[in-house]
Write a structure and sequence with these properties.
Strand order of the largest sheet: 5-4-17-16-18-19-20
Structural class: alpha/beta
Helix content: 25-40%
Keywords: Acetylation, ATP-binding, Ligase, Nucleotide-binding
Number of strands: 30
EC number: 6.2.1.1
InterPro entries: Ac_CoA_lig (IPR011904), ACAS_N (IPR032387), AMP-bd_C (IPR025110), AMP-bd_C_sf (IPR045851), AMP-binding_CS (IPR020845), AMP-dep_synth/lig_dom (IPR000873), ANL_N_sf (IPR042099)
Bound molecules: adenosine-5'-triphosphate, magnesium ion
GO molecular function: acetate-CoA ligase activity
Pfam families: ACAS_N, AMP-binding, AMP-binding_C
Amino acid sequence: MINKINTLGGYFHEYQKSTLDPESFWAQQAEFFFWRKRWQHVVQWEFKTPSIRWFDGGKLNITENIFEKNLYTHGDQTAIFWEPNDPNDAPRQYTYQELFHAVNQMANSLKREGISKGDTVIIYMPMVPELTIALLACARIGAIHSVVFAGFSAQALADRITNAEARLVLTADQGYRGNKVTPLKTVVDEALSQCQGVERVVVYQRAYVDVSMTPGRDVFWQEFISNASDDCVATEMDSEDPLFILYTSGSTGQPKGIVHSSGGYMVYSAYTFRNVFQYNNGDVYFCTADIGWITGHTYLVYGPLLNGAKIVMYEGVPTWPDAGRMWDIIAKYQVNQFYTAPTIIRSLLSMGNEYLLDKDLDSLKVIGTVGEPINEDAWHWVHDHVGQSQCPVVDTWWQTETGGVMISPIAGVTPTKPSFATLPLPGIQPVIIDNDGVEQTGNSVEGNLCIRYPWPGMARTIWRDHERFRQTYFANYENVYFAGDGVRRDEDGYYRILGRVDDVINVSGHRLGTAEIENAINEHPLVNESAVVGCPHAIKGQGIYAFVVCPQTSTGGEEGVKLSIKQGVNKRIGPIAKPDYIQIVSNLPKTRSGKIMRRILRKIAEGDASSLGDTSTLLDEQVIDEIIQGALVEV
Ligand code: ATP
Ligand code: MG
């Protein structure tokens, strides 16, 4: 089993080891895995081109490390507890042994279809166990999977199919999310009419509804796997062979097809899972992320299954049939670790505490968040009410590109501080660099968050666009990975993410992070959520424009609320951070993974709503029209 850090002293010790001699540190972690052939070099790298190779010369298959390596100890143990969208439908479960057979059967079927190592497969499926099976079946035979969130439009899907050069698409007839039905097969048909290269579409019947099937191209899942053996020898992979492509959320622009490796990703996902969540054998772990996002890849599928964990996979949404659903699931499966997103916490918080009444949350040991900075209000609510002040809250900072968590408390080990991601994990060397490329050393500094040395889970390239990879992450500052986020290291050496670098607002020469201002605004008792962007300002250079979700405005009306928001920010941060404009809105534009798309709001605040850029990953386009209508500057 992977080493688990369990004291703060132990953390500092491991951390020091990992920076003094990263090669020995990572070689030691890699020893826990089954390699068909051992690596020759732990790491070879340079960040100029860039070229990053971990465990080069090593041969492995990640699924052998999930299955064969562990079956004799926990083959009969549950791997997946699947909770359907509708609480009245029957749940399903898979043991490791059962999952292994299902994966092999699908793997053999893909092989029979002519899919082999290096081919790309697009997966556009709802959150059913077959989705996990699909990923692992690809990995079993060395096919590169690329999961597209099953809520994306036909155009977004077609773009990804084309970019990934996929020959085969795995999908379902329909998907259920809350009271919404998504006609996945229809979307696939539409996408395929806009792109080329796909020869086979496999349709899992989730709903058994009529769908149009193109003869010669489309086949139902059951038929596709029929008569396929459930015994399949894993394909041998080089450490550096790609495991998957995953497109980023598109919060800042055109999504990037991030490529992850086989060997390094395996080591990093498993190591970070075990440590951050302090997973103990037998624990039940629940991650609310969709597998369409990196969090689902690393912390619902690979990290947990490599550790032989019991996972809860949920098909639906957190607020359906009501805002108590998460708590029901936690009680039903006696969940020990719960990993979710600030956007979900904020939405549940805004619906009131009554949904928590009478829910048995005593099994919870750890709560984790990812995706955005978590504001203090949301942090305290989840800590006090959900965790009953007994569970550490781990605010995990990472990205699609980093493959796994980078800066985060280790649950129960690192003392937490609300809205701080705290300290880097072993092996991760954050550096803070100012806009002129000067490293900011010591504490109480802020600037651009960069990472000095490679880590095994980092992305290797952008699919078919290595130059964009270089330019985005390695060209701004020499010899480091540039994350694109702003950060502060406080007087204790703790890291606090300030928001995207592109979103930093410069008021009269003062640089202000969006996260901090939003944090102050969200403290107002009537405010659910907010998004802050810069706008043109004749005197200050940039002014502050706040979009605020505030369903009730109580006494004093809108103007009264706006005034008290300003007073609150003034008190919390200072007059410099006081918004110049506050627009009350009913909702914020978000990506389908729940992140606020500030770049769109920035355009609106700049009075330039005519060119909003790529909006294909947006959840709800109507929100934008409403915001444009109510915009406070001339549009
Ligand atoms: P794109 O790169 O296409 O714009 P994206 O950055 O939203 O999309 P992801 O890789 O899903 O795509 O998100 C990573 C980003 O999410 C980080 O760069 C950071 O801005 C934000 N983030 C994730 N976790 C945290 C956290 N714990 N605290 C603060 N910010 C976080
Ligand atoms: Mg990003």
